[in-house]
Write a structure and sequence with these properties.
The relative contact order is 0.12. The protein is of the alpha/beta class. It has 2 domains: 231 residues, 3-Layer(aba) Sandwich (Aspartate Aminotransferase, domain 2); 132 residues, Alpha-Beta Complex (Aspartate Aminotransferase, domain 1), CATH 3.90.1150.10. Helix 8 links the parallel strand 6 and strand 7. The structure holds pyridoxal-5'-phosphate. Pyridoxal-5'-phosphate (PLP) binds next to helix 5 and helix 6. Pyridoxal-5'-phosphate binds next to helix 5 and helix 6.
């Protein structure tokens, strides 16, 4: 196996992100295959005992066991790191494996976390239920409020953890401020960048330390596999993440890595087209619903900040209907083209009612605190013709009495 055209990383790392998405991290075997080879092997063999001893001693590069290294998975990791502008990346079995690994690999008993209160349901479960079992406490705050981040810092605060835009309220975090604040206090910032991806926003450019992904969403982009990734400095990956990952095994399967690589080739095109479509659909919906939560529209209270941080608004937004759960469910049931689905990042348009799906398990109190109302719907705008989507939404709104 050798890396693309034999060039070293100092040359390939200068390529722009759209080029990295196609070329970054490509290794080729002696067959010269055009696309990435799929190595489903769990183990490896060696010509002699000295070779395997040198690999285990870390004196020689090479594969030893697929929980530690796999060529197909490493190609994906190199590609994601190059797109993200990160020194290193390690792929994970799912987005939640990525979040759990990014937090547990660095936190100890007695540490404190400051986390955004609006978050993906399972991310809230980690900070609300899992971390306390190991004596790690969390203060959850309104992540839109810069002063709240500062006020929540304690002497034992080790990590800031947030999403921007957040699922599903579309809260935006001022990354330059919050990451700068963390740096000044020696706190590590972990950003869940599933909604935007590196194509629309690169948190490391704003001073974040760790970027964690559900690659199930925009990166795969077609609802085919579960996958995750953690990007950070070489030092963080070597010293914190790898000892945890190598011994606990939340690894991505090579097949899923191969599928995600295929998705990454079109990520730039998809993220920009889905953003354009989401703007058209958002402008149509704005006059028909009680409230829009769309970072691409001037009505979003943090529109200016969102557009300063993001190259485009992304394909996901939320809105509220005045008739609560009953009207929200009626609208879902009337859809003909848009699917009822709690997934996001797909090339198909999907809609869900967060209070009864993704945010059901956090309970009514946490939902109220996060701002997830009974009338809220979240839409993932896909790659269909936006006029077909608007016609479908138009008839579904009418059927729901809107
Ligand atoms: C989906 C999602 C996750 C979890 O990812 P999985 O791949 O489903 O495990 C975490 N954070 C955000 C923001 C998500 O949308």
């Amino acid at each position: 196996m050798k890396r693309t055209t034999g060039l070293d990383r100092s040359t390939t790392s200068r390529w722009r992100p759209a080029t990295q998405a196609i070329r970054g991290g490509t290794w080729r075997s002696e067959h010269g295959e055009t696309s990435e080879a799929l190595f489903l092997s769990s183990g490896y063999t060696y010509d002699d005992a000295a070779t395997v001893a040198a690999r285990f001693a870390g004196e020689e590069p090479g594969m030893t066991y697929s929980r530690l290294q796999n060529p197909t998975v490493e190609m994906l990791e190199e590609r994601i790191a190059l797109m993200e502008g990160a020194e290193a990346c390690r792929a994970q079995a799912s987005g939640m494996a990525a979040m759990t690994t990014a937090l547990l690999c660095q936190l100890d008993q007695g540490d404190h976390v400051v986390a955004a209160r609006a978050a993906f349901g399972s991310c809230r479960w980690l900070t609300d239920n899992l971390l306390p079992r190991w004596g790690i406490t969390t203060t959850t705050i309104d992540s839109r409020d810069n002063a709240a981040w500062e006020a929540a810092i304690q002497p034992n605060t080790k990590v800031f953890f947030f999403e921007t835009p957040a699922n599903p309220t579309m809260d935006i975090v001022d990354m330059a401020f919050v990451c700068g604040l963390a740096r000044a206090h020696g706190i590590t910032t972990v950003v869940d960048n599933a909604f935007a991806t590196s194509v629309l926003q690169r948190p490391l450019d704003f001073g974040a330390d760790v970027v964690a992904y559900s690659a199930t969403k925009m990166m795969d982009g077609q609802g085919r596999v579960l996958a995750g990734a953690v990007c950070a400095s070489n030092q963080f990956i070597e010293e914190k993440l790898l000892p945890f990952q190598r011994n606990t095994g939340p690894n991505l399967s090579p097949f899923n890595a191969w599928v995600v690589m295929k998705g990454l080739e079109t990520l730039d095109l998809r993220a920009h087209r889905q953003s354009e479509n989401a703007l058209k659909v958002g402008r149509f919906l704005e006059s028909r619903v009680a409230r829009m939560l769309h970072p691409g529209l001037p009505s979003h209270p943090q529109h200016d900040l969102a557009m300063r941080q993001m190259k485009a608004c992304g394909g996901i937004f939320a809105f509220e209907v005045s008739g609560g759960r009953q009207q929200a469910h009626a609208l879902l049931d009337a859809l003909q083209l848009v699917d009822i689905s709690n997934n996001i990042g797909d090339s198909r348009s999907l809609m869900t009612h967060p209070a009864s799906t993704t945010h059901h398990s956090v309970g009514p109190e946490v939902r109220a605190e996060m701002g997830v109302t009974e009338g809220m719907l979240r839409i993932n705008v896909g790659l269909e013709d936006p006029d077909d989507l608007i016609e479908d939404l138009d008839q579904a709104l009418t059927a729901a009495g809107l």
